[in-house]
Structure to design on (265 residues):
């Protein structure tokens, strides 16, 4: 039996054990953030250089992040143009000494949907500049295929619009992406609100999930971190176990033919 705590997956050649990636924004305090990150068992924490620059307690924040000992995945949250995203990615590489970048490019302010056209353009520029891009995208198969063609080894399709907590709105699309890109590392990012949502993503064969609002916005973020940690493990166990096929009619779980009968006298 594979232990989900030791069953790793790859992000640009680096083996990652925890299938839960965690964000660092929106927590009530840096202390709660740090405790929640530890409780999640995550190996990777995402950070936004832009957002944290405006925080008066910025030095404390970076120290908390450093003290976790986790690998940092910087992102380009809040960017609306290719130039803006590329510039911020280059700044992140200097600050965090990593070629990893979670590429986010907002195309619509209402649901914060990624701009697929700008995303492709920025991805091409960044890959040519030596970045290892993890693009945040919608659950569109053709877009995912185009990103893979550009050289992305990791894709991060949404479950639903960011911060909504609605879970996996289109499991068919997500399942199709998994089936059509069998060798791609796939991480569901955005829209998850409950541990059951994370479990469903792992049951579909996704390699991991990335969470922020679902944990940071919970009544008790630390407890919710424990819940999501258990959920991704359960989902991974279920995927590797291979679920029973669905049936249209009922079938008895205890057959009667050939079974002995006992009679009370």
């Amino acid at each position: 039996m594979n232990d989900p705590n030791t069953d790793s997956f790859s992000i640009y050649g680096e083996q990652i054990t925890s299938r839960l990636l965690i964000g660092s924004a929106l927590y009530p305090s840096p202390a709660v953030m740090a405790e929640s990150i530890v409780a999640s068992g995550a190996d990777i924490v995402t950070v936004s250089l832009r957002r944290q620059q405006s925080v008066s307690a910025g030095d404390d924040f970076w120290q908390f992040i450093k003290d976790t000992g986790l690998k940092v995945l910087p992102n380009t949250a809040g960017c609306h143009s290719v130039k803006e995203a590329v510039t911020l990615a280059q700044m992140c590489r200097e600050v965090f000494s990593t070629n990893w970048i979670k590429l986010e490019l907002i195309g619509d302010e209402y649901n914060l949907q990624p701009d697929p056209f700008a995303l492709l353009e920025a991805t091409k520029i960044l890959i040519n500049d030596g970045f290892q891009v993890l693009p945040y995208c919608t659950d569109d198969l053709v877009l995912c295929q185009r990103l893979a063609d550009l050289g992305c080894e990791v894709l991060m399709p949404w479950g639903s619009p960011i911060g909504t907590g609605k879970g996996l709105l289109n499991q068919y699309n997500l399942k199709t992406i998994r089936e059509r890109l069998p060798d791609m590392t796939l991480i569901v990012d955005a829209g998850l609100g409950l541990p059951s949502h994370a479990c469903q993503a792992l049951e579909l064969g996704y390699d991991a999930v990335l969470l922020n609002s679902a944990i940071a916005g919970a009544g008790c973020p630390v407890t919710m971190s424990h819940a999501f940690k258990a959920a991704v493990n359960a989902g991974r166990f279920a995927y590797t176990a291979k679920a029973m096929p669905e049936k249209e009619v009922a079938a008895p779980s205890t057959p009667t033919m050939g079974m002995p009968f006992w009679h009370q006298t």
Summary: The radius of gyration is 21 Å. The beta strands are 9-11, 14-16, 20-23, 44-48, 71-75, 100-103, 132-137, 154-157, 185-189, 208-211. The chain has a mean pLDDT of 89.
